[in-house]
Amino acid sequence: MGVAVMQVANAIVDLLLSKVVTLGDVQVIIDGFSAMGFPNCGGAIDGTHIPILGPDHQGSQYINRKGYFSMVLQALVDHKGRFTDINVGWPGKVHDARVFRNSGLFRRLQEGIYFPDRKITVGDVEMPIVILG
């Protein structure tokens, strides 16, 4: 049973993930968030803990701050709540900030390749596309 589950999970990641979890049209997302009162916003991000059975190896790393075994899921969503980026698999003990700093999303943001270079001026400050967290 375990092998079949892993084969299905791997197939989902290899074949479907990039088709379902995708950024889409950034301007539509920005316009959607702007209509809600959040100008120049490219997404909203948060993390959650997915409960798991305690692993035999390094189990204490998977006990989160609430005292149960988990893995961390970090998700970025658009203005309609659709996933545009996900990162899952970190042990529950790991802080959200560390998960983010080690994510592909963070790397792409730092490299300037996730969002286009669109800035707006707020007062006298140039504001790039932001993420709500």
List keywords for this structure.
133 residues; alpha+beta; 4-stranded mixed beta sheet; two-stranded antiparallel sheet; 4 helices; globular
What does this structure look like?
The protein has helices at residues 2-20, 26-35, 96-101, 104-110; strands spanning 41-51, 70-77, 83-91, 120-122, 125-127, 130-132. The mean pLDDT is 89. A 4-stranded mixed beta sheet has the order 3-2-1-6. The chain has a two-stranded antiparallel ribbon with strand order 4-5. The radius of gyration is 17 Å and the shape is globular. The protein has 133 residues and is of the alpha+beta class. It has 4 helices and 6 strands; from the N terminus they run ααβββααβββ. Residues 45-124 form the DDE Tnp4 domain. Its cofactor is a divalent metal cation. Pfam families: DDE_Tnp_4.
Strand order of the largest sheet: 3-2-1-6
Fraction of residues in helices? 25-40%
Quaternary form? single chain
Give the overall silhouette.
globular
User: Whole-number average pLDDT?
Assistant: 89
Number of helices: 4
Radius of gyration: 17 Å
Approximately how much beta-strand content do the residues carry? 25-35%
Uncertain segments are none
- In total, how many beta strands? 6
Task: Provide the structure class.
Answer: alpha+beta
Order of helices and strands: HHEEEHHEEE
Cα-to-Cα separation, first versus last residue: 38 Å
Biggest sheet statistics: 4 strands, mixed
Layout of helices and strands:
Layout: H1 2-20, H2 26-35, E1 41-51, E2 70-77, E3 83-91, H3 96-101, H4 104-110, E4 120-122, E5 125-127, E6 130-132
Parallel strand pairs: 1-6
Antiparallel strand pairs: 1-2, 2-3, 4-5
GO molecular function: hydrolase activity; metal ion binding; nuclease activity
Cofactor: a divalent metal cation
InterPro entries: HARBI1-like, HARBI1_dom
